[in-house]
Amino acid sequence: MRRFLDTLYKVSGGLAALFIVGVLAAIVTSIVTRQMGIYIGGLDAYAGYSMAAAGFLALGHTFKRGEHIRVNLLLAALPPKGQMRLDIFALLIACVLSASLAVFSFKLVLDSFTYQDVSTSDDATPLWIPQIGMAVGTCIFFIAILDETLRRLKGHPASQEQEIHHE
Question: Which among 11, 36, 106, 121 would be 20 to 30 A from 1, CA to CA?
Fold first, then answer.
C-alpha cells in the first residue's frame, strides 16, 4: 500500500508538471499566433484551466514532501509529546477540511455535468471537463493528509522528516 500511495503522489505531481507545460504551450501559441495575425479563441481559457489543474494536482505531492507552508514556531516551543499532539490535532482538522473540499469539488463537477454548464469564453468548453483536475487533485490531497494522519497516529515521524533522513 505504501508503494501505491507514494506512486500516486508522484504521478499527481508529474501530471501537475505536465499541466504547467500546458500553460506554457497555450501562452506561447497565443503570442505567436497573435503576431502572425491569427486568432485562436479560448487559448487564454485553456491556460487558466491548465493552471488550475496544476495547482490542485500538486497539492498531495507537495504536502507529502513537506513543502506546504507551516508555522513551526509554536511546535518548536512545545516538548516532543506536545508537538506530536498538536501535529495530530492539526492533521485531523486538515482531514475534515480536505475531505469537505474533495466532496464539494466532485459535487461541482457533477452539477456542471448535470446542468451542462459551459465556459463563457470563446472556447465554450463544458466546465465539468476542466473541473475534473480540481476534483481529482483535492481527492489526492485528502488521501495524502489522511495517510499522514494515520502514520503520525501510529507514531511514525512526519513523511518529510523521514525523507530527509533517507536522502
Answer: 106
